[in-house]
Amino acid sequence: MPAAATRRTTPRALTRWALSLALGLGCLSAVWAYDAPVEKKTFQMQQLTTVGGKTIKDVRIGYETYGTLNAQGNNAIFIAHFFSGNSHAAGRYAASDAAPGYWDSIIGSGKAIDTDKYFVVAADTLVNLSPGAPHVVTTGPASINPDTGKEYGMGFPIVTIRDFVNTQKALLDSLGVKKLQAVIGASMGSLQAMEWAASYPDMVERVIPVIPGGVEANPYLIETLGAWAAPILSDPKWNQGNYYGKEAPLQGLAEALKLVTLSSRNYGWAESTYGRRWAAADKNPLDAWSNQFAIEDSFAKVSAARAQQADANSFLYLVRANQLFRVGQTATLEEGLKRIKAKILFVPAKSDLLLFPDYSRKATAQLKAQGNVVETFEIQGDGGHLDGVFLIGQAAETIRAFLTR
Hints:
single chain, alpha/beta, 8-stranded mixed β-sheet, two-stranded parallel ribbon, 12 helices, globular
């Protein structure tokens, strides 16, 4: 049978795969990048009281901005990132960067999210997956607890999507933002966008949830997330989260990241990208257990590379935050929904097998029933969940028009 030669993992491939290892990821199309140099900055607050009633001291998150805030403070748009993402939504830190931010195709001068018109802010979440990455600033289980001088580990308070949003609100207050023209985010970012609408209804004019999870994590999603976490929990090196200063549970983390990526794709993408090719032309999987198919080899290599910058405990905290999601973080879903005033544009992906388009349809019915203005644009393709990042350009003109309504 035909077989492919072993693939080389180039820096550009790693960049694209870093996006792929996500709970949702525009299109890295051949358009001009956001043309101003991007500077990563740090926001710090003395403490945060979590939804669970715990106090986190010395909270730090990274952020970057594009465009200029007007004198009224009312031309801002906030970009919330996906599960394994960070604040780098557009542009480059340096001309030598392999690729621009993940949604560069829609953020910039003259683009759908026009930085000549809007002040765009993107921020790292609490418990960001990759605290060791060079351009990530976050507070989470890998951070030093000021009370003990040691890493928090699993002693870090459980946090929610609402806690992410409350930290972002403090950041925007510090920048002088009074009104958000929109909050936009993909996947886990869509959960943050909906939470913004429920938590700060008088501040948010519009929300654009891309590859959205609806208005609460349903039981199927809760268990999917639990399955992602299982390889970490079963890795002996995890040691109940006490691995800092020791050998990290990289095998379990790599296996978890493989599951995330597989969930985020579609069988059509797997067929067109890999087919049934072997990892090496002379190594038939029939002959030995160590001989692999191309898709297995590729997933294993890139997930192992990604695990080097990620943190296993942070992965688990992100899983729990997503599982706990319900708009408004209220006792009932109905109470949270009633708080939402913003216009909403759902942007699901037709081939999404993680956050199914049905989630958007159900949320649309719930919101329209209480009088909200809701629109939908569906991204076409067979790439699965990640079409919400790589093919976001399909929705560019719809987003541009929605921001004017």
